[in-house]
């Protein structure tokens, strides 16, 4: 039996999230220097030892978040495995390509974006208030870190930050320098840059973006399969994502062979298992152990939607099929 105390240790409340403001190489670059990064489940991809990990239990995927004030952007980078975002708060513009001009899409609250692997991407808060996007990263090691567009590394050096070839960040403003024998992260060569795809907006949106209200409509009786081999966004990134609403929630007890994660978008949700229960609110993240029988239903009236993520054991491989 799993006790309430044991399960509470697997819940990260929105109000308890601990941000890192020095997680990445663009932490001092104007326009990106106000962003906050959160590592909720797994090791994440932070380049800074200051990053706090809330839950370190391996799930086969990572859960993180980015919080940014209006007009703050995250610089162009790439990953070797999946990077999926859904908007919790605010209005966000995602852009991609070597210079960020190959394509773009604007996402509203609840929308989800399975960003094509191997593509340079960035994002910015274009709303009027502090915004938050939640992230799912493929693999337990999150793909081995971040690959930055060359101009990001060059801009960071002008503002005192240097990244080592091992992916560790050094801040000259704090008197830090690369240790003897350690080389800086090399810039991608022109030939290497040619291997990064430049999909257009028309290429990307149909197969990689799902709108919240479309998913809600599909989830009126059964959960909407959002990411998976037979889902709205067909993919095998190492996890599957579904959206559950009031109409498709069930109090039937069920379990999964791999760890799963519950992330409310709207409404309050009661999770019940053999040893107790807990209530989740938007922005909370709950890790459910494998093989634990549980149920998840709205606990109050009104709109209610929740993202459900479960590991599949598939390799967290490429998503771009251009």
From TrEMBL:
Residues 70-133 form the Cupin type-2 domain. The keyword Zinc does not apply. One of its GO terms (molecular function) is metal ion binding. Keywords: Metal-binding. Pfam families: Cupin_2. InterPro entries: Cupin_2 (IPR013096), GPI/OXD (IPR051610), RmlC-like_jellyroll (IPR014710), RmlC_Cupin_sf (IPR011051). PANTHER family: OXALATE-BINDING PROTEIN (PTHR35848). This is Cupin. It comes from Roseobacter cerasinus.
């Amino acid at each position: 039996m799993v006790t309430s105390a044991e399960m509470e240790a697997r819940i990260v409340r929105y109000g308890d999230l601990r941000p890192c403001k020095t997680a990445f190489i663009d932490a001092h670059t104007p326009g990106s220097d106000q962003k906050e990064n959160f590592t909720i489940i797994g090791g994440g991809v932070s380049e800074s030892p200051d990053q706090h990990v809330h839950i370190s239990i391996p799930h086969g995927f990572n859960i993180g978040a980015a919080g940014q004030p209006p007009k703050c952007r995250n610089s162009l980078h790439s990953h070797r495995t999946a990077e999926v975002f859904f908007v919790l708060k605010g209005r966000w513009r995602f852009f991609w390509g070597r210079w960020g001009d190959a394509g773009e899409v604007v996402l509203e609250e609840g929308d989800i974006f399975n960003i094509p692997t191997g593509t340079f991407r960035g994002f910015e808060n274009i709303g009027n208030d502090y915004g938050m996007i939640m992230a799912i990263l493929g693999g337990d090691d999150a793909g081995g870190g971040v690959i930055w567009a060359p101009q990001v590394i060059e801009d960071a050096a002008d503002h005192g930050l240097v990244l080592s070839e091992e992916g560790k960040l050094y801040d000259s403003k704090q008197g830090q320098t690369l240790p003897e024998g350690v080389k800086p992260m090399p810039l991608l060569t022109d030939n290497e840059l040619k291997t990064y795809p430049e999909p257009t907006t028309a290429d990307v949106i149909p197969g990689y973006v799902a709108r919240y209200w479309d998913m809600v409509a599909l989830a009126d009786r059964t959960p909407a399969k959002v990411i998976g081999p037979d889902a709205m966004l067909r993919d095998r990134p190492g996890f599957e994502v579904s959206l559950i609403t009031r109409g498709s929630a069930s109090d039937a007890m069920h379990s999964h062979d791999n760890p799963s994660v519950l992330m409310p978008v709207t409404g309050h949700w009661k999770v019940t298992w053999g040893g107790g229960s807990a209530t989740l609110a938007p922005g909370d993240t709950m890790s459910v152990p494998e093989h634990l029988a549980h149920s998840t239903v709205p606990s109050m009236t009104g709109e209610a939607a929740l993202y459900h993520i479960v590991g599949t054991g598939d390799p967290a491989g490429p998503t771009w099929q251009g």
